[in-house]
Design goal:
Length: about 250
C-alpha cells in the first residue's frame, strides 16, 4: 500500500488507529506530494524529519517523491517541470543529498508528466539519469507518465524506457489518464489503464522482472470488481515475466 505522508503525519483518533492497523497488515511505502525537490526555496527540514520518524514508527522501507518543483515563496499546489540543465541537476542532487542525510537512507524520485518545458540542454532521460547518478537516489518508474509525455512531446516510449537507468528502479506506477486531444494527454489517475500503457508496463517487466507495482486511481472510482480486474492484470503480467532474460540465458 502507498500513502502520502503529508496526509497522515500527526493524524490520531479513529483514522490514526485504522492506519496503524493497516500498517500492521500490509507493507507501506510513502509517496510525497510537497517536498519540492527542484524548487528555489530551502528544503522543509521539519517535514523531512517528521517523515523519517513516521517511517521508523511504521517500518516503512521507502520514501519517494516527484522529480519536479511545487513551491516558490509558498506552495503552488501543482507539480511543475524543472529545466533539463546541468545546473538543475546539481541543484536537485544537492537537495536530494540533504534529504537522504536527514533520513539516513536513499529516496526514490519519480519520472514526472509535464506539459511545457522551460529550458533544456539535456534530454528528459539524460536529465533523470544525471540526477540519479549525481545524487545516488533511486527511481520510481511511472509507465503512464512515459506514455503521456511520449504523446505530448513526440518521442518513442520504448526508446525512452531503454534510456533510463532501470537498474535503479525500486517499483512501478501504472495509471489511467485523460485524453484532452489527440496530441494532448493529461495524467489524472482518474480512468482505466489503456492498452498502450499495459504494453509499456509489460515492456518494463521484460527488462526488470516483476517489480512491485502500484495501480493509481485517485477519483472516478469504478466498482471494486473493475478495479480488482486491473490489479489482476498487473499480476498476470508479472507472472509472465518471473524470470529476467539474463537469468533465462544463464
Amino acid at each position: 500500500m502507498e500513502a502520502a505522508p503529508e496526509n497522515w503525519i500527526g493524524v490520531g483518533g479513529r483514522f490514526g488507529r485504522q492506519f496503524s492497523a493497516m500498517a500492521e497488515r500490509y507493507p507501506i511505502v510513502l509517496h510525497g506530494l510537497s517536498l519540492d525537490i527542484g524548487g528555489p526555496d530551502p528544503i522543509d527540514t521539519e517535514l523531512v524529519t517528521e517523515i523519517g520518524a513516521f517511517m521508523r514508527r511504521f517500518d516503512v522501507p521507502l520514501y519517494s517523491e516527484h522529480l519536479t518543483y511545487c513551491a516558490a515563496e509558498g506552495h503552488l499546489y501543482d507539480l511543475l517541470p524543472i529545466p533539463f540543465t546541468q545546473e538543475a541537476v546539481t541543484h536537485v542532487a544537492e537537495r536530494v543529498a540533504q534529504v537522504q542525510d536527514i533520513l539516513g537512507r536513499s529516496i526514490a524520485l519519480e519520472n514526472a508528466s509535464y506539459y511545457a518545458q522551460p529550458h533544456r540542454d539535456l534530454s528528459e532521460a539524460e536529465f533523470i539519469g544525471a540526477v540519479l547518478e549525481e545524487s545516488g537516489c533511486d527511481l520510481l518508474l511511472d509507465v503512464n507518465n512515459i506514455y503521456v509525455n511520449s504523446i505530448n512531446h513526440r518521442y518513442d516510449p520504448i526508446e525512452f524506457l531503454d534510456a533510463l537507468p532501470l537498474e535503479r528502479a525500486r517499483y512501478i506506477h501504472v495509471a489511467g489518464h485523460f485524453d484532452e486531444a489527440e496530441d494532448l494527454k493529461v495524467d489524472t489517475h482518474g480512468s482505466d489503464v489503456i492498452d498502450p500503457v499495459w504494453s509499456l508496463l509489460e515492456a518494463a517487466y521484460q527488462r526488470l522482472g516483476p517489480l512491485p507495482t502500484l495501480l493509481e486511481r485517485d477519483f472516478n472510482l469504478p466498482p471494486l470488481a473493475e478495479l480488482l480486474a486491473e490489479v489482476a492484470q498487473i499480476r498476470a503480467l508479472q507472472d509472465r515475466h518471473q524470470v529476467l532474460p539474463s537469468e533465462a540465458a544463464g
